[in-house]
Every structure is written in structure tokens, then in C-alpha cells.
Amino acid sequence: MExxxxxTEQSDMVQHHITAPLxxxxxxxxxxxxxxxxxxLSRKPSAGGLVTAVAPVVVDCGGLWIGWSGxxxxxxxxxxxxxxxxxxxxxAGLLSKQVIAVHIPEREFDDFYNGCCNGTFWPLFHSxxxxxxxxxxxxxxxxxxxxxxxxxTLEALRKSAKELDDQERFExxxxxxxxxxxxxxxxxxxxxxxxxxxxxxxxxxxLHIPFPSWDIMRLFPWDxxxxxxxxxxxxxxxxxxxYCLNFIDCCSRRxxxxxxxxxxxxxxxxxxxxxxxxxxxxxFDRFVQLAENTPRFLKLAESEKIILGVDRLDYTKGLVxxxxxxxxxxxxxxxxxxKVTLLQISVPSRTDVREYRQLKEEMDQLVGRINGxxxxxxxxxxxxIYGGVTQEQLAAFYRDSAVALxxxxxxxxxxxxxxxxxxxxxxxxxxxxxxxxxxxxxxxxALVVNPYEIDKAADTIHRALHMPLDEREVxxxxxxHREQQMDVNYWMxxxxxxxxxxxxxxxxxxxxxxxxxxxxxxxxQYLNNHVDTICKLSxxxxxxxxxxxxxxxxxxxxxxxxxxxxxxxxSNMPDVNIAIISGRNLENVKKMVGLDQLxxxxxxxxxxxxxxxxxxxxxxxxxYAEKLRELVHDLEKEVGHSGAWVEHKGVLLTFHYRxxxxxxxxxxxxxxxxxxxxxxFEPHEAHMAIEAKPPVKWDQGRxxxxxxxxxYGADWSERVRIVYAGNEAAMQALSGIACTFxxxxxxxxxTGANFRLEGPDAVLTMLKWVEKQMNKRSPRLTRxxxxxxxxxHQRKQNMLDxxxxxxxxEDIGGNTSSTFLTNGRQKxxxxxxxxxx
Length: 837
Ligand code: ADQ
Known about the structure:
- The structure is a single chain.
- The chain is an alpha/beta fold and about 850 residues long.
- About 35% of the residues lie in helices and about 20% in strands.
- The chain has 24 helices and 33 strands.
- The strands form 6 sheets. The chain has a 10-stranded mixed beta sheet with strand order 31-30-29-20-21-22-23-24-32-33, sandwiched between helices.
- Helix 3 (about 135-165) packs parallel to helix 4 and helix 6 (about 225-230) packs across helix 7 (about 240-255).
- The model is unreliable at about 1-15 and about 780-835 (pLDDT under 50).
- Bound molecules: adenosine-5'-diphosphate-glucose.
- Adenosine-5'-diphosphate-glucose binds next to strand 14, strand 15 and helix 12.
């Protein structure tokens, strides 16, 4: 089915065809369900601009809408009532089979909605971190609810795919459009399952509130999960470019993603995500019609003027500041007493949240105080309505007000400013607008005022009240023109166009634009400040997934020849040391890399072999080997089937499940973890595998520090630069010490790394950059082949040799239990060492 909708582009009317079913996912359904006295369900329409614009498209393209019904029920709702035959709302044509109601238990909803959405994200994203509460249990509830939304969306996608197949529309890709801060991580699960099940779809997200700067965003303890959740989409939309740039900045700084600020692209795990400013509009023509057809509600004295404020009662809307500015106006310019009235309409909002109840009390007191201070027998300065008004009344208030005060402290866009100008069909009034609303950056002809500057705000209101007609006309004409052009349909169509979901054969799918491939230049940005022209360089590299691609069997993970050659050349440079660290056993990793002049750390650093033959082995309890053999036996017997297998490599054991069927995987992993635990082992997660490690306080991080201290002594930080690329195991130990690259193609990883690289190809580019950089250095004395004797010995032997390894043995040691076996000679550092081969 192809649907024609009208798309207004500037002043031209352009016809586009929607080419795909649209699946909208929002916290609330586009109508509210209510139960009558007999317990029967019926729909109560919602009138917001979003619903007005989006619902007709969903109706026409046979799409779906997923959301919470607004009802708390014991069991999931079994059916959604059809709309009333008299229903004229935009959602009237939405059949019940096009609606999926998400069930959220009441307690869970409280933690999710009041706790996390409104207690954490609302203040944080509005840059009011002092009001934000960070609680692990509300965040957990948030993730669970998002997963529930995701699984309902996946059902919708499967249903949609089947319908498309039945219609033989095999190329058509359903578009999933997720809305707002309640659903920031739903796409994580959707993307994962879509890829596993090979479901075709395009995923989009739109945020209706501001996106904060990195400084604010980083306060949230799980900020990386939020960013990755949004990046699981193909397109992420915000109202204005500033929010886009904030988001891109966070992706770069927090996730270490490669970004292209000019073209607004972010790369995560090899996928390009498009970031787009899509400023929302209002149903302009509908507001004009309402303004034209609604009678006057306000009874005003001769020459009395109304200043209007319309908001949800929310601390972001700057209501208290606004009332104080109005008080200041009356103090500073008493000529307005008895001539000007502030009509403030505040719709109750989130009344079960304490801060919102407190704000109501504060407003009540403030309005009471100012009215008490200035009121006359026939005039009160503030008319304060605490409650909703109908759209007709609203349009009449907009039309009949001389000034609109839209002064939020922070606001994603703000529709009130736009609705006000739409309704200015008679003698035009003046819009006063905060620069901290998204609308503030676009409605240039408004009078812009900082709501925190109470005195200036009073001056601006005074100026607005005295503004000559010709100036008001000029300003309002342009404001109205823009809002008419960029109305809510324009927004809807811009969205569809940006998803390549309109039939416009002349243009390529906008989502097909990819980020330019990673090049050496990217590493200028990553490493230029780190790798200088003087210091030595230590490269510490993981093997599997970093130097060699991940494969179904470890024996197949062969390092590309080109990588080997670069490593070889680098290892011959006098200022470069290379250590390879791996979960493989020492002999195996050395064999796989096949270069002599490197340090190798096998079994996650339990065994370390330096190029001169110096070897360190961390001791392992004697009984461990026997326990490990038992674990191998149990795993092979219980879960060693369906593609899963056990690799026993020296002191480590790895249970591989990469080849298991996806639908059985969770169960196999669960059972394997139980077996690990029963046998007394902690199951460690690896690449599609679970590992058992010896019960020693030694890991890749400590092994890295040990290698560095062995090579350079304890005070190397001034003389050596370290670059680490690999998995997370060593990241913490090296944070602040090294420039770290997390190498992983998975889109959802927690990392402390400075940057992310997708896989071995990217690591090869990094190595080439290092080679190029090191080649710029002026030639030094030729270095002798790698140490074959102890360093001191060697230095004594050949004073001309440029020695860089094992500098000051006296520095080695610290508090590690370590044993060195140097070509048969044994050197012991620290008293509590145990030897091992
Ligand atoms: P809101 O925070 O709800 O929306 P806003 O954009 O101002 O803020 O929209 C409020 C809507 O409610 C308007 O359509 C207005 O007409 C209506 N309204 C307000 N007070 C009312 C009253 N007392 N009675 C009846 N109706 C009333 C979020 C973001 C915004 C963003 C929108 C859309 O916070 O920044 O502009 O989404 O993306």
C-alpha cells in the first residue's frame, strides 16, 4: 500500500508517497483509555500537535502505534476499543489492530516514570542537575520498561514483515520511530534482535526535550548506555542544531566514537548514525481557524492590556521568574497599574511528584502576595488559572493578548510561542521569548529576554507594551510566515524524507550516506598530543579481535600479513617496544604472532616472556589444576553440544558458545554459568565465551603495569608514552597512564577507553600511523638486536648500544609476587615471591 500525503516545502506544495509502514513508539498512546461505570473501555482523544501530525500518517500507511494506555491494569489489556463513530480526532481512523498497548505494572511504572523519567532525565536534560536524583533501582526499572517497549516493537516488526511479504513487498523497510526521553534505551534491544533475526527496518529516535552538554550528561552514572541506546537507531533527531552538536560531542567524548560534525554523523561499531535537526512545528492552520471562529472570552476594561503566560506547571518553564519580572514592571513603571493584567494559565502537571506540588504552593503564595500588594477595587494585576483550558479558549486568549511571555529557563522547543503567533490574526501583539527555549533560536523577530534577568525582563515587557504598531506588524508578519511554512506537517515530512521513506526516485536514500572510512588522519586527532617526538613508545596490544579477527575457532584467528609486517618494522625501531597480551597461553600467542622481538603475555598475563628470554610466571594454587579438569568434564557433559565447546589452555579454560543457535543461547549460557559457579569458579565474560581464571589477584591490567615497570622502571611516565589497544581487561589499570583504544564491533559496551576502534583493520591503521610518526624522528644510533642477556649485563657489554628495555632492574618489584627466570638464571624481587615454570 502506498499513501499520498501532502508535504509543504517552503511555499510549494509537493506530493510525496510514503513508501513504508510507520511504527510509532511513544510512552503514551495517542489517545487515553478510560473505563466507564460498567467497566467498559473507551477512547478519550488527545489533542497535541504531535498526534495531529503523526496519527493520520500511521492511519493511512497501515502502520502501528505502540504505547502505554494510561490505565493501570492487573493483566495486559486484551483488546483496545475501536473509536467512537462520532470521534473527529486525528486518531479516529486508527483501528484497534493498529494499536499495541504496553503493559507496565503500577509499581514499576512509578519507578520508571516518576522516579527515572521525571526525577532524573527531565531535570538533567534541562541542565538542572541539582534537581536530578540518580538511583540505581529507578534506572533498573527504566531499563526493564524500555525492554518491554522493545519487545512489543519487535512483535510489531515481525507482524509488519509478514504483511509486507504477503504483499510481495520484499524490499520495503518498515520505519520505527521512537519518541522522547522515556524511551532512550529501547532501541538497544530492538537493534540487537533485528540483527539476530535479520528483520528489515529503519530505526529513528526523536527527542522532544533539550540534549544537554557533555558537562551535564557525564553526571549520569549510566550515560554511556543512554548514548548507545540512541545510537542503536539509524537517525537521531533533535529540535535544533545545538542539541545535535551536544549529542555528537558526548558520543565523541564519552564513547570515543568517530564523529563528523560538519555532516552530523556518528560512527558506532561500523554503523553510521545520522544526527538531524528537525524543529517541530504546530498545526498552524488549525490554530488560525480556531482564532477566527472562537468568540471573545476575556472581558477587559477600555485600554486594558493582557500579558499572557501559558504553560504546564513545571519548574523548567520559569514561572516564578516571570511573575517576579511582572512585579518589577509594576514597581518600575507604575503607569501600567490598572492598565495591564498578567493572565497566567498553568496546567497541572506531574502532581504526584513532590517538587511539582512545592512549585504549586510557591506560585499560589507569590500570586497572592503580588495581588495583595497591587490590587485595586476594580483591578487585580494577576489572573491565575490553575487548570487546563480548551483549545478554543486557548486560541481566543492567544488572539486577544497584547503580549505573550514565553520565558522558560530551558525548553526543548516550546509550542506556546508558535501557537501565539498563529493566533495573531487581528492587531498584532508582541512575543517575548527566552533564548533558552529551542524556539528562541529560530523566532528571531521576538523580543528575546534572559528570564534570570528580572529587571531587564521588566524593561522588555515595558518596551513590548509600548511598541508601535508598524514594528509589531513587521515582526509578527515574519514570525507567522515562518511558522506557517514550517508547521507540524512540514516536520513530519522532513522526518519521513530524512528516513528515505518518501518516494522520491531522484534522490538517493539519505541514510545511505556513510562516514568516510577511518584513515591515518583520524589518528592525528587521537594520538598527536600523546605520541610526541621525544619519548619512547610502548605499544600494548591484545591479539584476538585486536590484531586478528574473531573467528569461530581460535586456530583460525590469523593475523593479516600486513599487520605482521608493520609490527615487525615497529619492533625494529629503537624507540618502540611492543607487548602482546592475550587470553591464549604463552606458547600459542607467540606462535600466532610469530615475531621474535616482542614481549608476550599469555593466559591474561599470568605468564610473561620478554624478547631476551626473561620469563615471569605468576604462581597458581596447586589444587586449581584438578578443579579445572573437573570443570572441563562437567561442561563437556552438560552443555558441550549444539556448537558449544570447551577450550582448556594451560591455566585457563574457555567455554565457547559463538556457534550455538541464537534462540538456545541464553539457556546454554545460563546453564554453563551455573556449572562454573557450582565448581567454585567465577564465570568471566569474554567474546561469545565464558572463561575460568585462576583464583589469583592478577589480571591483564596488573600484567601491563608489570611489563611497563620491567621495561622502564618505576618512574617511566616522563620518558615513555603508552598506547593500549584491546578489550576492557586492562583499561582500568591503564586509565590516565596510556592512550587507550577499545577494539570491539559490538554497539553496546561499557568502556573506560579514550577511543573505540571497530576491529583489526582499524588497529592496523593505527599501527601505520604510529610507524609514520616514528619515522619522522631523526635517525639514532642503530640499535642492537633485542636483548639476549640481562640488560645490565648488556649495557656493560656494549656501551654504544641503544638500550631501551629493562632499564633499571632495581626499580622493579613493587608489591607484586613475581619470579623471573632469565635464561636459566633466576632473579627474585620482593620477599614473598614463589617460583614457577
Ligand atoms: P511541553 O513541555 O509540554 O512539551 P510545550 O512545547 O510548550 O511544552 O507544549 C505545551 C502544549 O500544551 C501546547 O500545545 C499548549 O497549547 C498546551 N498547553 C499548555 N498549557 C495549557 C493549558 N493550561 N491548557 C491547555 N493546554 C495547554 C515538550 C517539550 C517542549 C516541546 C514539545 C514538543 O518540553 O519543549 O516543544 O514537547 O516537542
